[in-house]
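#lab-general

N.A. 3:47 PM
ok so I finally got the sequence cleaned up, no stray characters, all 153 residues accounted for. can someone with queue access submit it? mine expired

B.Y. 3:52 PM
send it over

N.A. 3:53 PM
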Amino acid sequence: MKLLSSVIALLLNLVLIQALALADLPGPKAKESPNVEAGRKAIDAKDYKSAVDYLTKAVQEEPNNADAQNMLGYSYRKLGTFDKSMEHYQRALKIDTNHRSAHEYLGELYLDMNQLDNAEKQLAALKKACPFFGKCEEYEDLKAAIDKYRAKK
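B.Y. 4:20 PM
back already:
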C-alpha cells in the first residue's frame, strides 16, 4: 500500500511539473486588429513614426491590449520620446503584470535614462515571470543589455 501511494504521488508530481511547464506556452493567437498588424510591420521596417500612428489607433480601439501598449512604448522609445514610452510600458504592465517584453523594454528604457537600479528591478521581475527558473529570451536580452551598460561605465 505504501509503495502504491508513493507511485501515485510520483505520477501526480510528474503531471503537475509537465502542466506547469506547458502552462506558459502561448496558445493560438487571436487575429490581430489591422492597426496592431500594421504597427508590427512598421516596427519591423524600423518606421517608428508610422508605428506610433497605427498603434495609437490600436490602443484607442483596445485600451486593454497589453501587446499594443508595449509596442507603442517600444516605438516611442526608439523615437527618443521617453516619457510616452514609460507611460505605455507601465500601462502594458498594469494590464499584464508578467508581460515579459514590457519588462525587458522598460528595463532598456531605464538604461537609456541612466537608471541602472530600475533596470535591475525589471530584470528581477523577469526572473520571476519567466518559466523554467528565470530562463527566457527577454531575461537574457535585458541581462546582456545591463552587462553592456556596465562595461561602458
